[in-house]
């Protein structure tokens, strides 16, 4: 029986060994498959990203970033993994040396298993370190290697600004990473060597702890040596106090910088002290230099607090005066404020008819529409189908029939999520509905009789003052899904009556879905249908990342992008999107930060994205900028220096940058240091009324002729008011056209006179009995009164205010309509049906003689030409007849919306004819609409 049992047990044991081997092999295979899948997913993402970047001509950008990340990732992995393995290896060896075998867990003596475990833990820590190093270090490293000089030094260390922007951040990164890693290892060692007080009895443990303490001491010395340079970029003088100076202050100069050098020396001495004590075996005295160091750190903070409280605060201006000058100069340089052209504006009450005539270009471009309600109008009157949408309406300027004119412009984009549920098929979403169509353009200064914008480009296909040669919008601001073009399915182009027009994509800028590409991107898109569909051919192209913001951020994530792209029509009739890219920096000496730690900003790059092809170009707007030159050194093929003229003609100075600069200049315009210290003449952004709330006034574009110029220009401007006051003290502007692009200027009003500010004008509108009564009547009659942008319009040596008034009925399908225009000048306010009427009314008040002469001239001309009324009547009747025929044609074609618009125009013509025959209205003036009529018109 024993033999039999033994044989049986031996056979079972043999089978178990075989099964264990098989299971081990299965485990290895499964592990290998998992690793291959993970590696494959990473590789797939890299490969598809490379193919996408290469299709746009930016493969070099991708490889440069990837190479940098890989090298830094490997370095981080080696550093963290090697440090971890060394620490664990030394701890194990110390345990084995200090304890008997019977006192240790058996696993510690199994060298092979322990090595595998230590390697595994090291690999995990290494991967963590790799992600940190490559994530935060790749851009800084590339900038360090390729940085360009600023050509300007700081006043204290006399180092080029590039040291603070490029070199100091990478030095701080190295020190903090190594210091953090060392402290982590120290905590592990303390935990390991606290067992049975090994740190007291084990020579190996003492050496290990001493080495780590010594390394931390050297890193602390490096940290303290970098502190003086960092003091030039902060106003923090100690843990508890800040200085009035941005950058180096008196306390920094006399206390903090010497303290940093002393602490660095103490850290080095502490390190040497601990090494000596370790060699001699005197472990107890190792803590003495640590205690001294901590004591000096605390004492240094105390001295800094004492000097700030008892030396600086009682006589702060005298102590900080030389540092305030550096703060003033370098902040101006960081925000490009040192070249602002400052002038006096007399603010005279000199408006007359001759001035209006001299500045006809400015008067003709005063905005009568506000972008905010105008977007609702575009989306209701110019979309035509539920799946079209205007995401935004932008302001720009064009040469129209030889005239320089400011316009509103919006792109009609496609929103496939608005398709009916039954149309939400894979074919429709990916192959058929691929693009939006066309743009709408309207005058900024003209509205129809119904208060709607007067269009310059409208309808489908776009018709008007310009020819849109390539109206398809494949790339835009919507959250576009990826689509496939050139398939067997025709793409929907635009609706035309009872049928739909189709289109074929003619560019070759997408990703060709032939060969291996089709498999790779089918996996990447997670679309099995893409792989097997017989509707795709070798000519099919994948258009990926079609949202323009996602597109540029995917190509160049190292820029900061303005969140307000705008559509531009080029001379060849194609459409491109334009985005402003900002280059920002931290650590600019003595400069005040505008956000977080960022204290330097430039709009050195303009980006265009073709709405049809998706081609992206990064243009150099400031070729001499050192940050731009640094990126050009890193990515030679990224930035294009030659800017096409039709692109440059539509450069707009970005409102976000202008707001930052204007905010900074509100404080840093003061050149007198004592006034600057006391903030005696701080300027702030005024407020305006919008709906029923007071909001901060945003910068606005206007076309105007500057007092010292001969022609109108496209200007971005904003008024200033004194802090806690409402009168206007100045206005700041920046030029946008030609060689003067980016030239900033400020006109300051006399301080001894009151110039009404925007909020004061808003309050006076509210207090005007006739205006407020009419607005209240509208508001009580089932309508909302929308106060549009209040525009301050400088004209030569005076200034006028203009504000459009919108009426909108309280229903979801209502349209905001411009029903009145308020004009304010000096102590006078008028409200009329349109801008021309308001201007005439104002001139009647301020320049009555000129208006009487014009009226007499007009009457004489009418008397001298008795046939004129007959001719005008015939013209009106002919126009009325043509409109009526168009109305009947629209009805027969089933174009109900067009018929409704024509009927509105017919009603307007009838009203004009009635008014012209009314003896009580000899001048044909329009009576004010009541609230009921407004609501009815809106609902219609």
TrEMBL record:
Localization per record: Cell membrane
Compositionally skewed regions (Acidic residues) per UniProt: 908-921, 928-940
Membrane topology (UniProt): Multi-pass membrane protein
Recorded coiled-coil stretches: none
Chain segments annotated as transmembrane: 25-47, 70-92, 113-133, 163-187, 207-226, 260-279, 291-311
Residue ranges of the region described as Disordered: 848-872, 905-940
Family (UniProt): Belongs to the UPF0182 family.
PANTHER family: UPF0182 PROTEIN SLL1060 (PTHR39344:SF1)
HAMAP family cross-referenced by the UniProt entry: UPF0182
Name under which the protein is recorded: UPF0182 protein SAMN04488072_106197
Species assigned in the record: Lentibacillus halodurans
């Amino acid at each position: 029986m024993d033999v039999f049992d033994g044989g049986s047990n031996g056979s079972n044991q043999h089978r178990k060994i075989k099964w264990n081997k098989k299971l081990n092999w299965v485990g290895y295979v499964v592990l290998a498959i998992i690793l291959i899948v993970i590696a494959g997913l990473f590789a797939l993402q890299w490969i598809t990203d490379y193919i996408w970047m290469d299709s746009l001509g930016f493969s070099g950008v991708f490889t440069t970033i990837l190479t940098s990340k890989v090298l830094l990732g490997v370095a981080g992995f080696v550093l963290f993994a090697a440090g971890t393995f060394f620490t664990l290896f030394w701890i194990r060896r110390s345990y084995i040396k200090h304890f008997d075998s019977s006192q240790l867990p058996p696993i510690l003596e199994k060298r092979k298993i322990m090595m595998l475990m230590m390697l595994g833990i090291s690999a995990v820590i290494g991967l963590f370190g790799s992600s940190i190093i490559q994530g935060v270090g790749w851009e800084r490293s590339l900038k360090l290697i390729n940085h360009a000089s600023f050509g300007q030094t700081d006043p204290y260390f006399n180092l080029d600004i590039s040291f603070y922007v490029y070199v100091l951040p990478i030095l701080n990164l190295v020190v903090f990473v190594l210091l953090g890693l060392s402290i982590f290892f120290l905590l592990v060692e303390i935990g390991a060597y606290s067992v049975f007080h090994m740190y007291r009895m084990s020579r190996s443990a003492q050496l290990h702890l001493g080495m780590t303490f010594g390394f931390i001491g050297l890193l602390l010395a490096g940290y303290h040596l970098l502190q003086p340079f960092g003091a030039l970029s902060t106003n923090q003088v100690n843990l508890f106090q800040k200085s009035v100076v941005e950058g180096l202050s008196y306390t920094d100069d006399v206390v903090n910088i010497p303290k940093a050098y002393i602490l660095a020396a103490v850290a080095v001495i502490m390190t040497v002290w601990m090494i000596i004590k370790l060699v001699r075996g005197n472990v107890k005295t190792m803590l003495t230099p640590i205690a001294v160091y901590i004591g000096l750190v605390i004492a240094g903070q105390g001295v800094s607090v004492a000097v700030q409280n008892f030396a600086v605060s009682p006589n702060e201006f005298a102590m900080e005066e030389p540092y305030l000058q550096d703060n003033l100069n370098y902040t101006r340089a960081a925000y490009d404020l040192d070249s602002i052209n400052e002038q006096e504006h007399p603010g005279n009450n000199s408006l007359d008819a001759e001035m209006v005539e001299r500045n006809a270009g400015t008067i003709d471009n005063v905005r009568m529409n506000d972008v905010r309600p105008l977007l609702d109008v575009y989306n209701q009157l110019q979309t035509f189908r539920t799946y079209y949408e205007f995401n935004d309406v932008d302001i720009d300027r064009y040469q129209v029939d030889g005239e320089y004119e400011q316009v509103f412009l919006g792109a009609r984009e496609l929103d496939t999520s608005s398709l009916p549920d039954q149309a939400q098929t894979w074919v429709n979403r990916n192959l058929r509905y691929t693009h939006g169509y066309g743009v709408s353009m309207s005058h900024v200064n003209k509205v129809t009789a119904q208060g709607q914008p007067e269009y310059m480009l409208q309808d489908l296909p776009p018709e008007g003052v310009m020819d849109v040669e390539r109206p398809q919008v494949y790339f835009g601001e919507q959250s576009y899904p990826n689509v496939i073009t050139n398939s067997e399915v025709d793409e929907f182009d635009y609706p035309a009556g009872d049928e739909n027009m189709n289109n074929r994509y003619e560019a070759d800028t997408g990703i060709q879905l032939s060969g291996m590409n089709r498999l790779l991107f089918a996996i990447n898109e997670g679309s099995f249908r893409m792989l097997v569909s017989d509707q795709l051919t070798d000519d099919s192209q994948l258009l990926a990342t079609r949202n323009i913001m996602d597109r540029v951020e995917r190509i160049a994530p190292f820029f900061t992008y303005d969140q307000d792209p705008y559509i531009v029509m080029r001379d060849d009739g194609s459409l491109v999107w334009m985005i402003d890219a900002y280059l920002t920096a931290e650590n600019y000496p003595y400069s005040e930060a505008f956000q977080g730690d960022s204290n330097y900003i430039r709009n050195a790059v303009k980006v265009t994205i073709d709405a049809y092809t998706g081609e992206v170009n990064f243009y150099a707007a400031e070729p001499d900028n050192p940050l731009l030159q640094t990126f050009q050194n890193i990515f030679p093929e990224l930035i294009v220096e030659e800017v096409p003229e039709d692109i440059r003609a539509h450069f707009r100075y970005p409102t976000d940058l202008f707001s930052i600069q204007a905010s900074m200049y509100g404080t840093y315009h003061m050149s007198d240091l004592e006034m600057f210290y006391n903030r005696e003449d701080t300027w702030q952004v005024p407020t305006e009324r919008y709906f029923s709330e007071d909001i901060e006034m945003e910068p606005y574009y206007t076309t105007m002729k500057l007092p010292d110029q001969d022609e109108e220009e496209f200007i971005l401007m904003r008024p200033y008011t004194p802090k806690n006051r409402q009168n206007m003290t100045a206005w700041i502007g920046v030029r946008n056209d030609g060689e003067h692009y980016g030239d900033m200027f400020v006109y300051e009003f006399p301080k001894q006179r009151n110039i009404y500010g925007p909020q004061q004008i808003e309050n006076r509108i509210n207090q005007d009995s006739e205006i407020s009564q009419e607005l209240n009547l509208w508001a009580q009659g089932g309508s909302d009164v929308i106060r549009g942008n209040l525009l301050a319009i400088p004209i030569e040596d005076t200034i006028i205010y203009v504000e459009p008034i919108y009426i909108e009925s309280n229903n979801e399908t209502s349209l905001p309509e411009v029903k009145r225009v308020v004009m304010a000048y000096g102590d006078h306010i008028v409200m009329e049906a349109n801008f021309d009427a308001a201007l005439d009314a104002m001139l009647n008040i301020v320049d009555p003689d000129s208006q009487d002469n014009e009226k007499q001239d007009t009457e004489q001309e009418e008397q001298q030409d008795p046939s004129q009324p007959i001719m005008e009547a015939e013209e009106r009747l002919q126009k009325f007849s043509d409109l009526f025929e168009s109305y009947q044609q629209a009805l027969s074609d089933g174009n109900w919306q067009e018929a409704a618009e024509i009927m509105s125009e017919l009603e307007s013509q009838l009203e004009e004819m009635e008014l012209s025959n009314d003896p009580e209205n000899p001048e044909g003036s329009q009576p004010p609409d009541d609230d009921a009529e407004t609501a009815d018109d809106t609902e219609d």
